[in-house]
């Protein structure tokens, strides 16, 4: 029995908990991408930078609060700085929309033009972020780092394997659940949310029934900015903040959005978790798990790894290709790109 | 108004031509990854190289008063095509006489083969350490003030076996540098009788390293060797390994030695150790003071090597009596190596005078440069240990 417990702890520590945290971060990112895609009908490549921008302002505010001596005890100060970061990002994204995308909307430009324009926005935001905070790593996490450490766990249970639980991991998962719940409630229950869905389903019909398109676009950007800031900050808290990583994060986020089904909010969550877990599970070395659970003659000397971690990124893209081939609308059925 | 403009234009043209008449400045390209995965250490590298150029310009002694200008270009560290285009621009449009760079091994090889060799331009890299560059075809144009990682592999194996470590796990950053270094470490450690449980790559700039940490943890080992970058994946892997309790001792090769790591990770890193290029020669200390006066961080990785690389180019120009790469390439080894009068940072003016007087010099510089074999630094390593959240030097090898 104890050996099964050990195997479970190994999986929990190295696979399930990290997967859930990474999955929630991807899901929040993918949700933002999906909302812009369903309302404005283009792939917003600047989403990674929006996350970075939001996180940056949250960090700056956190530092300010820290210098004032504000603390949340065991929780990171960044949580109270989050609303400020969200607000600045909302203003910034609405400004970008006014300056860039509105022009193309008036021209009724093709989605691909929006997409290329968003690549331009990426570079500008990239520059602004580096200008303000610099290219270096920034640390802003404070409060308790662990809920319990690997050593605590060993003392409590006396198992040979141990488990550590970081507070940022828990905060990430809990915040992601809360934010997603609010977004769903907003989209499904409120008048504005319903008008957004109507606009997304059929633009002409929505316009005919008196929905204000400008308002829908504005609300879409506001939600996206909030999602991006929350996702970016959580990511920065859980790992570390470095402007460069956010551009890299864009690929798994898009993979998550597409696998789940672009334009489908549930799909974004499912996609995020699928991508995160597949990256970790397929490249995981199962030696110890096998040693704990299977009879002796089946034990292996090697690592029992399906694929080397070198292929981590290949995994998510293989899944992406397979999904696009079999079900082009994604697992949960969204739109085709 | 029109007359005034005309007069103004005439004067500018006059001053322009007057300038060109006496001594037109010589340009040296500084091609480093100002954007990309090592963007946080390149500002100090560039500043160090430009510090050497300024020193020479201000002295007015290079070839009887030639000024040196720096032209920066972005190598991106990872994108070989972009780096080659940037180098091509430096050579053909800015007409640089030589190149200080590039930084990462992959782009350095690409620039050497696609831009420097076809145009016959000398390049001295301060930080490309891949063993593969030792036997690259270079027409005698390529040098480096950083040692090859083949040498570092021996050092790592020595230190680890010296501490009685029997089994290690290795993770490396997935590029020419990381691969070359991890191969060298694996070969040397196994030769010394140790076991390597797993060699797993990690990708830089990806933020999430749960999968890598998972695989490394399952393979086990007494020490985790992290052949990565201090502000990149290397840090992420160490953080993940500590958080999950997978490893508690780490070996830190050159790319991982930095104060920022100890600061960011905190007490978990205590007891870990490593080595990076470094020397206790007096040049290292005087370079730190110069860096402080010039307002950049001289301890930042490869800053000292960058100063030396730029200095060597200019000293070789004086020795060759020409700023052309074709002439100066034969002189680099001469000015860098013994015999001759030892030259430390801040003494470039003196070195130029000595060369002009026909005296042999031995450029020691900030990193005790001694070029061996195909023109690469022999390598002096500084062994460090982390105690109480701080790097402390325990010896030199």
Tell me about this structure.
- The complex is a heterodimer of chains A (337) and B (397).
- Chain A is built from 13 helices and 2 strands, in the order ααααβαβαααααααα.
- Chain A has 337 residues and is mainly alpha-helical.
- Chain A has a single domain, classed as ABC transporter involved in vitamin B12 uptake, BtuC (Orthogonal Bundle), CATH 1.10.3470.
- Chain A has a two-stranded antiparallel ribbon.
- In chain A, helix 1 crosses helix 12.
- The longest helix of chain A has 39 residues.
- Chain A is globular.
- The mean pLDDT of chain A is 87.
- With 397 residues, chain B is an alpha/beta fold.
- Chain B has 2 domains: 223 residues, 3-Layer(aba) Sandwich (Rossmann fold), CATH 3.40.50; 142 residues, Rossmann fold (3-Layer(aba) Sandwich).
- Chain B is built from 14 helices and 16 strands.
- Chain B has a 7-stranded mixed β-sheet with strand order 2-1-3-4-5-14-13, sandwiched between helices. In chain B, strands 7-6-8-9-10-15-16 form a 7-stranded mixed β-sheet, sandwiched between helices.
- In chain B, helix 2 runs parallel beside helix 11, helix 3 runs parallel beside helix 4 and helix 7 packs across helix 8.
- Chains A and B meet through helix 1, helix 10 and helix 11 of A and strand 7, helix 7, helix 8 and helix 9 of B.
